[in-house]
Amino acid sequence: MHRTVASKGEGVAEVVDRFEEHLMFLRESGGLERRRRRRLEQRLRDLLEGRLWAEFRARLSDDAWRESLEALAERRRTPHDVAADLVGRAGIATED
What we know:
The protein is mainly alpha-helical. It has helices at residues 12-29, 31-58, 62-73, 79-89. It folds into 2 domains: 1-50, no CATH class; 59-96, no CATH class.
């Protein structure tokens, strides 16, 4: 940990040096590339989830969605049962 007072310029050069050293370490150890890949994977997952969710919801009526939520809220059905039912209503084939 380094104490800095940016308004006085105290310790700033040391912080920059430590940052650059850490960046070099990450590059050399492959950590930078691993982080980059994790970010790309997460971005791809987010995009796919968004598109798949939009497609899924477009296939369901609002009534079916509301009825399913009510059944869950009233504890008449389990989340697993409701999910399986909604996937079927949306016409999505699954392998059990």
